[in-house]
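Structure ticket #2291
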Amino acid sequence: MVSASTSPAGSVGYVETQYLDLPKPVQLDCGQELHPIRVAYETYGTLSPERDNVILVCHALSGDAHAAGFSKTPPQASTRDGFGAADRDGSAGSGLGWWDGMIGPGKAFDTDRFFVVATNLLGGCSGTTGPSSIDPATGKPYGSGFPVITVADMVRTERAFLDVLGIERLAAVAGGSLGGMQALQWAILFPDQVDAIVVIASTHALHPQGVAWNAIARNAIMGDPAWQGGHYYGTGRAPDAGMGVARMVGHVTYLSAPALDGKFGRRLQFADDIRYTIAEPEFEVESYLRHQADSFVKRFDANTYLFTSRALTYFDLARQHGGGSLARALEPVSARTLLIAFSSDWLYPPSASEEIEEALRALGKPVEFQVIEAPYGHDCFLLEEARQTPLIRHFLAER
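Resolution: structure written out below.
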């Protein structure tokens, strides 16, 4: 575990994704055991002799292990392909980590102080075992035969991975969206092993509207004839059309009406007036969504989208751990908690974080809740890095 070489100022430098095979099976909530499991990961900073300065960063649905710095082998399409990415990144985007603005010397997760670990989650398609991996029982990719996974399964896999690295305790677990769900799950499953959690633009359970949008996205994939029941690997056909629609649907839920209006309005893409066409995009926003779809299918596996989307819709702390009570579910938590939400996020609204705060406060547990006024919807956790940084630095300094 060597720290990455630092090249550009304020960056962790050039990094290379590493891989680790877990020595034992992981028991899953569905009742199955999964083995073998390979985990893709990156590390930034230097591990202290006491091994007490570790921060685990967990990614959202479409992320990967490359959270910071510059990839030595830039991918064909970047994970930083969200709203405003081209304006923000310029030509550097393809090799830049998805949370580079938050991880590095002097940043929110300061690599001068902390040893930051980022993994690709269980079920992923960027190096960690998932549906596109080979099933040892058949010698073929799992496809739709991959076991249905939960956020808790992802966390158990992360715990097993850290055990191999010899890391027993975490200074913090942090993440946005699905990453925030993992942080909450860590605090409940392993309360004595986590000092703090940073939960950004997340929730204790996805609201029904979010469940519905995810269902539409999954049906778009499974309704594509090229999905072939999930066994499309090696056939020369993949459900790119359905996957593209799923990405369009998902991407719109990550934004807000004011953000779309401000960036695109009703401006036409190719002409001064409408062209009376059904098949081709007329408006800038249509062309933008098509670009998002085209970029996404180049780097992401459709089955991974299905399994990961299902996992985040299953996530419900009150149902899983509290018999329907959120407060009861949070009783084991001993970690200090920082909750950050964004005013325009309607998919993971501030009210969800407020419910977590109220439950923790009623239990007498240390919690801090901040709402950032910003117009970009759920994608704010990737865009408003500068405004999150002082909140997180101050919170982590109190440990």
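Closing remark: The CA atoms of residues 43 and 117 lie 5 Å apart.
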